[in-house]
Amino acid sequence: WPRLVAAGALVAVLPLGAMVPALVLLAVVAAVLGLLVGYETHHHAELRAGDLSFGRLDILYSLSELRRAEALTRRLFYGLVGTTFVLLLLLLNLLLSRIVIRPVQALSEAMSGASKGRLDRRLPVKSRDEIGTMALAFNVMADDLEASKREIEDYSRNLEIKVEERTRLLRESEEQLRALKNHLETVLAHVATGVVSIDQAGVIETFNDRAAEILSVSAPEALGRRLSDVLGEGGGGLVSLVGDVRNGRDGLRKSQLVLNRPEGRRTLSVVASALPGAAGRPAGTVVVFDDISQIL
After folding, report:
1. Distance between CA 33 and CA 255 in Å, rounded?
2. Angle 9-7-27 (CA atoms, 0-180°, nearest 5)?
3. 22 in Cβ contact with 6 (< 8 Å)
4. SS3 helix, strand, coil % of the chain, rounded to 5?
5. pTM listed for this prediction
């Protein structure tokens, strides 16, 4: 009986679906044990007829066969209970593995893969419990992450294309500007008037051949120097006119100036114009002049 009680305690912790058959089995076994325990080895009965007693009938018989049957039945019962218990444990383990452990393990593997960038895996949603809700939430999260990743990759790809296109355009513009600069330098070198360009700091940047001829200064000697240093004291008028334009006092100045050079006096027709720069400030000055000494 104590073993039967222990078996009943084990049955009490089983799930509801497995508890009902186990309880029925225990009830049947308890009834069989109750019948076996109720047998006695000695029975007697008094023989009477009316009020007269004729004696007593005693029946004695051996219970060895019954005891052996009882022991066999007990062994079969304990074996059946143990086997049933093991089978129930295996069934419970299988159910837990299929219902809880496998989905949780699949979710863990999927989340580990998603953390490494593999967002193409989706979990099957087979129930509406917590496991199914977690699987559905993971699928939604994976869809959002995959869409965001695709958008970022598309944006990056388009950005690379745009950068390459802008770089190509800048190179083409640079080549065009270089070609235009070379063309302008070629034109300025052969133009019939002197052309000098001065930057915002007052340094000569362009000095064509005609300017070198009129001012009697070679281009290598003039480039990179200030106009006042190149002309000296005899070019004060031209330096003053260029200074007014470079400092922003006049946007355009025209004048006839007398320039004293070691080779002699020269009368120049001069036009100085400011080069527009950022925020309306002049970026430099262009001076165009010609020698009109022979005309005057």
Report:
1. 138
2. 100
3. no
4. 60, 20, 20
5. 0.42
Spatial CB neighbours of 67, under 8 Å, sequence gap ≥ 6: none
Q: Please say whether the beta carbons of 7 and 27 come within 8 A.
A: no
Instruction: Output phi, psi for 43, to 5 deg.
Output: -125, 140
Dihedral sign, Cα of residue 241, residue 242, residue 244, residue 249: positive
151 alpha carbon, distance to own chain's centre: 10
Tokens for 56, please give them: 């007593």
Rg of the chain in Å (alpha carbons): 58
Helix (H) or strand (E) holding 287: strand 282-291
Q: Which of 226, 253, 245 is nearest to 284 (CA)?
A: 245
Contact 230, 242 (CB under 8 A): no
What are the pLDDT digits (tens) for 84-99? 888 888 888 777 777 7
pLDDT in tens, 209-248: 888 888 888 888 889 898 888 888 777 888 888 888 887 7
